[in-house]
Amino acid sequence: MSTDSNRANPADYHHPVTPAAPDLKPGDEAQPGTPGAAEDLCETCGGSGKLAGGKTCPECEGTGRVMRGIGGG
Question: What is the per-residue pLDDT for 50?
Fold first, then answer.
């Protein structure tokens, strides 16, 4: 019987803590501050934040704005 004393113990691995991502709205294509992205009017509600009947737009969550990719290459 052989013992593998060089084998790593999974409990010894430490996963880096990543900062929490800002709350993205369903219509966002990128996080704020992402290069090649900018704020744009929500296409679903036309920038009003409301749908017909006065309901809050689910894509922009009522802000009227979403983050869109603007760069290309």
Answer: 98
Contacts of 10 by beta carbon, 8 Å cutoff, 6+ apart: none
With CA atoms as reference, report the closest residue to 69 among 24, 44, 39, 42: 39
Q: Which of 1, 46, 12 is nearest to 27 (CA)?
A: 46
User: What is d(CA 71, CA 17) in angstroms, rounded to the nearest whole number?
Assistant: 30
Q: Which SS3 state, helix, strand or coil, does residue 66 take?
A: strand
> pLDDT tens digits for 8-54?
555 555 545 545 556 789 999 999 888 999 999 999 999 999 999 99
Cβ burial 6-25 (10 Å sphere, 16+ → b, else e):
eeeeeeeeeeeeeeeeeeeb
Distance from C-alpha of 6 to C-alpha of 22, rounded to nearest angstrom: 41
**What does pTM read for this prediction?**
0.62
